[in-house]
Predict the 3D structure of the following.
Amino acid sequence: MCGIIGYVSEGDCCGALFDALRRLEYRGYDSAGIAVLGEKGFSVCKKQGGVSNLASFYAAGNTGVGHTRWATHGAPSDKNAHPHRAGKIALVHNGIVENYAALKAELEADGELFLSETDSEVIAKLISRAYRGDLLRAVHAALGRAEGAYAVAVIAEDRPGEIVAARYKSPLIAGCGREGLFVCSDIPAVAAGAGYIAKAEDGEFVRIADGEICFYDRDLRPVPKVFFRPQADLGAAPSDAGGYCMRREIGEIPAALRRTFCALEKTDFAPCARALRGAKRIFAVACGTAYHSALAFRDAAERDVGVPVLCCTAGEFRYRPPLTERGDLVVAVSQSGETADTLEAVRLAKERGGYVVAVTNAGCSSLASLADFTLVMRAGAEIAVAATKSYNCQLLCLWYLAAEMLFFKRQKYPDWFSSLQKLPSAAEETISLFSEIDRIADSLKDAAAMYFLGRGADECTAREGALKVKEIACVFAEGLAAGELKHGPLALVREGFPVFMTATQPPLFKKCENALAEVRSRGGFAALFSQSEEALSQSCADVKVRLPALPAALMPCIAVIPLQYFAYRMCLERGLDPDKPKNLAKSVTVE
């Protein structure tokens, strides 16, 4: 979840570290810090809060590390911010040391004093104790005692021009760019200025020294690497580069859908044809927003292909009874391709003989490396923590996958397949409705809770709308199948209680209206979103929003856009930052 960066530059590296941290801030913004190694040793600045708090810090030196934090062990504070110091060592860390309590007790019994509440400081202490002038071997020895997940970058006071980094179950890349040689958590933070990069794999170490980048395996044997140019459209703009990223990214949905559709048209599905043709059941694994796209995939695959789909949150899939078997198709969805729970679910599925198809926005991610076949969407950089355009592109990829599955099984495509190319223009038309959404958000800005309802394919839209409101407006919201309203949730509906209904599936219009009538009879506020003039005209809803018309199977891609924007407007109405929601970060790389 945290972001780490390390630079060895020809000139001073402080500015490059700060700029990279601004681009990494979507990974955590509880606190931030920089350590620069200069002629007189380390200069360190650590501050609670955002990266902007480091703006006035400057130190001369060509070697340094930086960190932006999402707190796990220890509250957000100056003392818990990274980098952590121990002897001649300065360290930044992303991940969790699961055995830190035992290690800390052992070190304290041996006289070590700790200045923070973090698990990360334990690693710094272990490296310092092992350091005898060979930084690589000291880091190797220390991490040999750590259990859990980590990506670390380490510098030593008497080794200017050198950084040692390591990775286990947390992403790490290394490369060269305009500012020098670097290690980093994420490609988007450095993509704009990077020449070439390479990924570290689990258990590998990276050493930057003498103008070279060298990779080593867990036994410190050299590992050859192929360096590549990063995908240009993943370059991350800092969130203060003119307005809020979330609003900009919602506006980019049409263009993102166009790019993704063009990429899908050029994708050769032949390598996975056998798996698609032979699959008798599918497991779809994902987390958060990606899980909601998996629900939409289930609807299409079961209805149009006739294959049962078991949707599982990735964190639970890992601990359920071993149901996957050889020949099962496993569809894994992750925007970043680095979601820890999803990666572990994929590893488990592959151990059991499953064939994995990945859907991700990062073609060079860990998920893409693990999968048997990868669909790379072209959403472009998504910096706001709450997913928007990546969700729409996930839907497009998953529907395209379902259509290809039907083709390989029965040599035909679904009726709605040709309409996929209409999604971008329909999204543009939907964006024109935002002035209506502004009025709804203004009237509900003080609401303490709300429901989002849908039936059939609309249930995933209801769930995603509720998640967005929770994430960024900090309002309790629940998304549920509309038929479940009377089985408990209706107890909370009273005068003015907001209920949003998405009704885009014609056979279920009357059922949806029944639920709205239950809400209105108890004084609740009802808003209806539909493409059907008949459904809208006959509804008792207080507010009615007409959506562009597409085949019903594809409506979730369009129907969610007003709800994404509603959450954004609610957030602003309540005086919050939509790009940096409380307690959350973009790339969830820890359990």
